[in-house]
Design brief:
Blueprint lengths: L7 H25 L4 H37 L1 H11 L21 H6 L5
């Protein structure tokens, strides 16, 4: 019973075309949209990178805490630190200091450097 006397085939074809286009637009929005798949993937990579950085910094903090505890309680650690950083020596010891390995590349800085002359 065709009340309006119109052909259903072009209507059905156009309806399928409209639904296919709408589906394509929705899929594209899900992939490339503001909260799409690509954004989600980039955020997951950033999250993993930050988690790794947090873990590295946490380990570094633990090492520094151990070093602090060692310097507060262990006289040998204190002595080692004083010898390395402050170049302190015990009476009767000699310290030999070697010149820096790095030499200036620019000849004008070599002329201004009194150690080289």
């Amino acid at each position: 019973m065709n009340f309006f006397h119109w052909d259903h085939k072009p209507f059905r074809r156009n309806a399928i075309l409209v639904l296919a286009l709408a589906t394509l637009v929705l899929v594209m929005h899900e992939i490339f949209g503001q909260h799409g798949y690509l954004v989600l993937r980039r955020q997951k990579q950033e999250y993993n990178s930050l988690q790794q950085k947090i873990q590295t910094l946490s380990q570094e903090n633990q090492q520094l805490d151990q070093k602090i505890k060692s310097l507060k309680t262990n006289p040998e650690a204190i002595e080692k630190q004083a010898r390395e950083q402050l170049h302190l020596v015990r009476p009767g010891e000699f310290v030999y200091m070697l010149p820096n390995k790095k030499q200036p590349k620019d000849p004008s800085t070599a002329q201004n450097n009194p150690q080289k002359q």
